[in-house]
Specification:
Blueprint lengths: L1 E2 L4 E9 L8 H11 L7 E8 L5 E9 L2 H7 L2 H6 L10 H27 L1
Antiparallel strand pairs: 1-2, 2-4, 3-4
């Protein structure tokens, strides 16, 4: 299906792989890129589930018209998966501590300015 508003083609995939446990996303990207005459960087496969017993997987894929559209509409975690964006460094706790330290510094700076204005 073509989605002109989001500048992409979107599809449900059913992949039959009788001798493999599952199919890698990189292989799916290459095959879809060739099939739809697009660059493999613009193909975003995700959500694959292997059927019980193996041999068949179903998933979803998006093929964007341009890299700008992909970066605009794709969620950040999928861009990170394909190395198109960088992940946030540091642990969650470190980010929260840094945020709270920034809040404290700004608050004290405001208080010092108020004291100077009163004198």
């Amino acid at each position: 299906m073509t989605n002109r508003l989001l500048q992409r083609k979107q599809m449900v995939l059913e992949i039959i792989h009788p001798n493999l446990p599952n199919v890698s996303r990189a292989d799916v990207r290459e095959k879809l890129g060739k099939l739809f005459k697009s660059e493999s960087d613009l193909v975003f496969p995700f959500g694959f589930r292997t059927q019980f017993g193996g041999g068949r997987s179903t998933g979803f894929a998006l093929i964007y018209d341009s890299m700008d559209a992909a970066k605009k509409f794709e969620p950040k975690y999928r861009l990170i998966r394909q190395s198109l964006a960088t992940a946030v460094q540091g642990s969650r706790k470190q980010r929260k501590d840094a945020k709270n330290r920034r809040k404290k510094l700004r608050g004290t700076a405001k208080d010092k300015k108020k004291v100077k204005k009163q004198k």
